[in-house]
Fold this sequence. Notes:
single chain, 3 domains, 4-stranded antiparallel β-sheet, binds zinc ion
Amino acid sequence: MKCVIDQRRDIESGQVCDGCRAWLARTLVEIVELYALLPANLTPGQAQGQRVSGSREAPLPLRVDPLDLGMPARAATVHDPLGDQIGLLSVATVLDCWARDWADVRAMRETLPEPSVAELAKWLGNRTDWACDHHPAIDEYAIEIEALRHPLRSVVGVSEIPPEHLDVPCRRCDLMDLHRLPGQDRVECGSCGDLLTEDEYSRWTKMLVADIRSHMKELVEFLRARLDEDEHIACGAQRTADFAWVPAALQSRWDARVDDHICRWSPERALAEVAAKRALLTVYTEAAAWYDANKSAPAGELHGLYIALQHIALPYAGHPDYDEAWRP
Ligand SMILES: [Zn+2]
Ligand SMILES: [Zn+2]
């Protein structure tokens, strides 16, 4: 069964996953905090949401009006069946409607809280776990809470933090499109929509690193041996050749283009290639050692280096020691 809020993550019981539960609780707290900052944004000239200084970043779908947001709770419908709601509903109105609704569904004759944003949020916050398990419209509640957060942030002048791009591949689609969403206990794949909690993400990167390490030990040894051979052969040619590595000196019986090619791959050049590839091996071993020392280090660097070394090993794929599992 899928979580009714994100509609993607599998859950074993109830209707809402742990990540969304935590997110709902945090969003409610954030709304109370942002709401407390509203009075400071109610100076003359700002009634239409025009900030005196600074600029709003993204255009909002609704007219933002701190006066609307800050109004006391009204016994109006949040769902606006006539579509004639012009400004925003006040925060207190939205929370009050939900408190009344939850009290009805719970049918426990509970006393409704005083209709202030702080009290309403506390009342709802204490019942969020219940709502996640039992309320039939918890998904609508999530949408409306999120819809309150956006204009509040905008009016108060707190900009949205962009998602953090993570440099490891998705466990499901293998694409490099994982993001950590600000203020949310989850990591999302922008391509396949896979959702991970922080715990799942941490386990996934550990598995990824373990997998890389299991292949890498032998791949690194294999590459070192091949580079030693390349170096040995290049040094031998350097010592025994009695000509300068320029095409004119070579004057072979082949096409001049073959001479060009031979000179391009002079022993110096071959040794420089060996040195560059050895440098990559060193970067990998250092990154692996660093990862061991700091378990929280990003796995992305190791993953990127693994891919680079897989490609570097490819020209040696004909060697009997080459392992097909290294093929990128
Ligand atoms: Zn969820
Ligand atoms: Zn994906």
